[in-house]
Amino acid sequence: MKTCGVIVEYNPFHNGHRYHLQKARQESQADLVIAVMSGNFLQRGEPAIVDKWQRANAALLNGADLVLELPVQWSVQSADYFAKGAVKILQEINCQALCFGTDSQNHFDYQKFGEFVSQQQPLIDETFQSLADSDLNYPQKMTAVFRKIYPENQLDFATPNHILGLSYAKENAKYPQPMKLLPIQREQAGYHDQKAGNGDIASATAIRNLLKENAAVDDFMPQEMAATLKDSPLIDWEKLWPYLKYQILTSSLEDLAKIYQMNEGLEYLFKEAVVTAKDFGTFIEALKSKRYTWVRLQRLCLYVLGKVTEEEVIQAQANSQLRILGFTESGQHFISENRHLPWLSRFSKESGSAWNLTVKLDRVYQLADAKIPEENFGRPPIRV
């Protein structure tokens, strides 16, 4: 079966995502579209607005044939590590193509870029290290690096989907049989658009803002997702803020310093800012600087909330199981045709041990609302 992969978050699933799935199948001429989807915590360090099962169900009802979980050790990471985990899963199942959205306004050859990086990695690393002492944040440094060594394309690492596209291209080129890359231009709404336009596609950010205002969002998403958002608790960082505040207040500086990616004395800033912060937003604003972006700090907050250590992340990243969240009849046939792959469809005490980090953080996610059910044990894949 010819397959095309998509790497997604669906926070929440909307008409733009349905368009992406349709274009993925059309452009790749694939028999099967396979979604690798972040679980309950997302790349920018946010909790998903509704849980992974509801988002996977919407995807299966609107064009995906198989949904696999991108576990938290990969999903809550910078673009390169996020891409590393997701591309690894697609390569494991021998996916032939990868279709992704891009907010780059000009035609860009992602395949060629990936090949260039694969050939020039030592030069890239050397150039990046020359900027080590600068006050630039990571996206600014990478923009400076590639504008110096790849001047024919004035790369800008400031647009989120383009950044991810570049990361997918770099990671994909490392494999003996790279997938064919199929970038799709975003329609009607940009990633950061705060407000909905006049069409039937709005950004996930705009939709979440409308939901906070109790405004109607039905026109921007399939009816199944609209119904889910009406019936389910909507999760954001403010609902987890009391637990984060407790962790910071009751942890010693030494304990905070052991948290994954807690470096450069950030534990002192956390301790200082938490005392006066009224909510999660004011806490992050007190920490944010040119060097420490909102997104980096959000990820770090999740690691603090779950007391995540580097050792835990390294152990979790060694896990190669393919967690099935759901499938259609075609997806089930694909699984049966590839029984040799390390599928995980149900958790048991034994099989779940390799997913300890996901289980722990999913239980933290449940703290946001008592209505959120058990996320792993006793949950079979969704069948559509």
Q: Can you summarize this structure?
A:
Helix content is 48%, strand content 10%. It has helices at 15-28, 52-61, 72-75, 79-92, 110-129, 138-149, 160-172, 204-212, 223-231, 237-250, 253-257, 266-276, 280-287, 294-305, 310-317, 329-337, 356-366; strands spanning 3-8, 32-38, 66-70, 97-102, 180-185, 322-327, 343-344, 382-383. Helix 1 (15-28) links the parallel strand 1 (3-8) and strand 2.
Provide tags for this entry.
384 residues; Rossmann fold; 3 domains; 17 helices; globular
Largest sheet: 8 strands, mixed
Content of β-strand: 5-15%
Number of helices: 17
CATH class of the largest domain: Alpha Beta
Report the CATH architecture of the largest domain.
Answer: 3-Layer(aba) Sandwich
Rg, rounded, reads: 20 Å
Give me the secondary-structure category. alpha/beta
Topology order in helix (H) and strand (E) letters:
EHEHEHHEHHHEHHHHHHHHEHEHE
CATH superfamily membership of the largest domain, which one?
A: HUPs
Percent helix range: 40-55%
Please state the overall shape, judged from the principal axes of the Cα atoms.
globular
Number of folding domains? Answer: 3
Topology record:
Layout lengths: L2 E6 L6 H14 L3 E7 L13 H10 L4 E5 L1 H4 L3 H14 L4 E6 L7 H20 L8 H12 L10 H13 L7 E6 L18 H9 L10 H9 L5 H14 L2 H5 L8 H11 L3 H8 L6 H12 L4 H8 L4 E6 L1 H9 L5 E2 L11 H11 L15 E2 L1
Parallel strand pairs: 1-2, 1-4, 2-3, 4-5, 6-7, 6-8
Antiparallel strand pairs: 3-6
Helix pairs in contact: 4-7, 5-6, 5-7, 10-14, 12-13
